[in-house]
Amino acid sequence: MPTVLNPTSEETRIYEIAVLISADLTDKEKQETLRNIETLFTERGMKVREKDEWRKMGLAYSIKGKTQGQYIIFYVEGKAAAISELDRQMKIERGILRHLTIKLPPNYEVVNWEDHYNSWKEGLVKEEEDIKKEKEEVLKKKIIQRATKKEAKEEKVATKGEEKKEIQEVSEKEITEKLGELISDENLNL
């Protein structure tokens, strides 16, 4: 269930700060960078309300020679005056490739994007399975139709063969009788 964020006082605002760190950092370096970022927040009187760590992913283009990174989204509450100094400090912080600060509207619902991504991915897998099952069903129906048509064709061929035999038998009898009538002495008028 999403968390709704509202400022706790009139002079503060809620900000979403997206930080892109290098994926090459060791766990120790990553934890140190995150501690430094949170220290930057607390030094400016800001309070971290929520944090969302995304998985490591490839970047669309190289940033400071790095092709992979990890996003960490911080939802912080603080005064507007602290943002410009925070922005300047984050530009020089080691380990941070990029950052972006956005002022959020009141009653903002925080969505855990990693969970959202995972559920989307699961939905894709389920959709692919459903499509695969549907294709299998269509294929089964086609196979059954072909088998039914083949059986009907074989049955029809067998029936035609029997009819031909009957026709031949009937024809030979009729021909013999007709020949007998034609050849008989009565019709010759002798």
Architecture overview:
There is one protein chain. The chain is of the alpha+beta class and 190 residues long. It has two domains: 3-111, Ribosomal protein S6/Translation elongation factor EF1B (Alpha-Beta Plaits, 2-Layer Sandwich); 113-184. The chain is 53% helix and 29% strand. The strands form two sheets. Strands 3-4-2-5 form a four-stranded antiparallel beta sheet, with helices on one face.
How far apart the termini lie comes to: 116 Å
**Strand tally, please?**
6
Gross morphology is rod-shaped
Structural class: alpha+beta
Domain module count: 2
Largest sheet: 4 strands, antiparallel
CATH architecture tag of the largest domain: 2-Layer Sandwich
Question: What's the number of helices?
Answer: 3
Look at the structure and give the mean pLDDT.
83
